[in-house]
Amino acid sequence: MRILLIGFGVVGQSFAKLVLARRSELMKVHGLNTRVVGVVDKGGAAVASPELDLAEVLDAKSSGGTVAASKHGIRNASALDLISELDVDVVVETTPTNIKTGQPGLSHIEAALKLKRNVVTTNKGPLALALPELVELARYNNVALLFSGTVGGGTPILDFGKRCLASDRLVMVEGILNGTTNFILTSMEAEGKSFNEALEDAKKLGYAEADPTLDVEGWDTACKTVIIANWLMGREVTLKDLTVEGITHVTKSEVEGAKRKGKSVKLVGRVAERIDVKPRLIDRSDPLCISGTLNAVRFVSQYAGDEIIIGKGAGGMETASAILRDLLEVKYHMSQRWYG
Ligand SMILES: NC(=O)c1ccc[n+]([C@@H]2O[C@H](COP(=O)([O-])OP(=O)(O)OC[C@H]3O[C@@H](n4cnc5c(N)ncnc54)[C@H](OP(=O)(O)O)[C@@H]3O)[C@@H](O)[C@H]2O)c1
User: In the chain, is it the N or the C terminus that has fewer CB atoms within a 10 Å radius of its CB?
Assistant: First the structure.
């Protein structure tokens, strides 16, 4: 399987390390021969056939700051150039999430699908803004568009809902989908901290970005909720169709009051009749009520009832493992020549 990898940050580099570590096992157990032929970052690209030496590209990135410093480097080559020039089976898109325009990921994904390349992405922005159109474009071109790493990092939340519950009818899906906000709310409850104190702790521990707006104002959860609504429940919605409320106004006394009643305040993305993101009170005995940076999702199906998946919601290696899961799915579909 020939792969073009766009973006070589935390997730892209983790993916390269995972391929290096698991290469022969992937071949032996799954018959998956991963050959990365191109890697692009903001500084340019590295391209080689039949495949790049990923260890050398990782070294070049670390010493030269860009993959273009590799011995196969091309300064200023763009992702769009490579999408149109390289003959690959899959484009793996891992550029930063942009929820205003979806760029640059949206253009990368659209260009790849139009050229009948399978796409695997961890980038929520393009999906949150244009998932119905992108799914249509993939179907029209009979290629796969897979994004299991966008919700729950390595935890197979989308795959569980899509495959394991395919025979049932999902009535409601709700989840704690953002580790940063859950860490903050947990620390407000367990240590009696204010929102700002808990946020500062989260920053010091590396759980919150320097600019935590997307997390604490609920937009990261909203992106994931849009993806769940479309992919698992057939709702053709984008970010603009959701009501979104974050946790910035949640006070210490609200959290303490909830605790006295045996409940916790949690930021919940919910797809039911309405689709929304807001802080909700959850019984502390409810398995959904997880603490720290974990994610948890409840699937309520008409016949199977309630099921909950709990796992780590992010992390480079965790998310890279979701990319591999999607590549295995692409391999399966390539042999079937059908993408549902
Ligand atoms: N990190 C996680 O745990 C996690 C989990 C789930 C999903 N995600 C999502 O996965 C994506 C990648 O995350 P990350 O943590 O790896 O981000 P990151 O560390 O910021 O890496 C982003 C990479 O994209 C490259 N890039 C930016 N603009 C580009 C362009 N126009 N053309 C080519 N490359 C470009 C950057 O290049 P430079 O290196 O040159 O700056 C960088 O290598 C994001 O959308 C994120 O939301 C991340």
Answer: C
What class does CATH assign to 160-312? Answer: alpha beta
Residue 217: pLDDT band by 50, 70, 90 thresholds? very high
Q: Confirm or reject: Cβ of 66 under 6 Å from ligand 1.
A: yes
- In the chain, where are the structural domains located? 2-154+316-336, 160-312
Distance CA 128, CA 239 (A): 6
Q: Angle CA(48)–CA(50)–CA(54) in degrees, nearest 5? A: 60
How many A from CA of 12 to the centre of ligand 1?
A: 7
Q: Under DSSP, is residue 114 helix (H, G, I), strand (E, B) or coil?
A: helix
Atom of ligand 1 nearest to the CA of 61: 39
Q: Is the minimum distance from the CB of 42 to ligand 1 under 6 angstroms?
A: yes
Mean pLDDT of all residues in the chain?
96
- Non-local (6+) Cβ contacts of 20 within 8 A are 54, 55
Assess whether the previous peptide bond of 104 is cis (omega < 30° from 0). yes
What is the reported pLDDT for 337? 55
| Residue in the block written with tokens 């999902």 | 170
> How far, in Å, is the centroid of ligand 1 from the Cα of 259?
38
Task: Indicate which residue's Cα is closest to atom 21 of ligand 1.
Answer: 9
Catalytic annotation present for 224: yes
Cis before residue 132, ω within 30 degrees of 0? Answer: no
pTM above 0.90, yes or no: yes
Q: Which CATH superfamily is domain 2-154+316-336 in?
A: NAD(P)-binding Rossmann-like Domain (3.40.50.720)
